[in-house]
Design goal:
Elements: H1 4-25, H2 51-55, H3 58-73, H4 80-102, H5 106-132, H6 134-158, H7 162-181, H8 188-206, H9 208-214, H10 221-243
Amino acid sequence: MSTASPLRHIWIFVLLAVATAAGVAALPALPQDPAYHQFADARTVLGVPNGWNVLSNAPFLVVGLLGLATCHRRSGHPARVAWVIAFTGIGLVSLGSAWYHRSPSAAALVWDRLPMTIGFMGLLVAVLEPSIGGRASRLLLAPAVAVGLGSVAFWHWTGDLRPYVWVQFTPLLMIVAVLALGPRRPGAVSLLGALLFYGAAKGLEAGDAAIHAASGGLIAGHAVKHLFAALACLLLVRVFRDATAG
């Protein structure tokens, strides 16, 4: 990769980040909808309240540990630390989300969202590394994670979700830009698959009650959403393996 190419990509990502931040900032304050905590399936399973929504988080722990084990075996990659943070966040999602879903509330939701932002920002820097270079990605990692954690703190203290919305969706836009900007890269197919599974997970989340009704109360969309999101994360392990192959 030439010297000009990383600089060009850096400017593209900076402009994308600034443009999306400006767009979100132009919105009115976004309070958390109180109905967010009302899930369709509240059954107790194996003595666990809201059991399926709690227990369906277990795959995140499995995927997080698998990702960390893969990082341990392949220690020479320049984005390894970013991948470690991404997989750590994924593993912690299993705990934070389970805690939240056991007794949903705004206070408990903080512990669901904190590890999600760690995972999102670690993944963002890991995916950007081949485009912006190792030095830039190392400099970006700590501020990116701090911004992610800060977005949750800002929401918790002010009730305004706008920074959190930016942190959740701007990395996805940047990953799409990475796939569109240059020649095909190792792991590109798996990365695209992860995006598609995550998109499906968000659709299942929106259809929580509808799926519960359509299945006659057998299952609801939110628990299935966790499984699809975990599959997206599993594909990220493949992305890292492909990036470090050979």
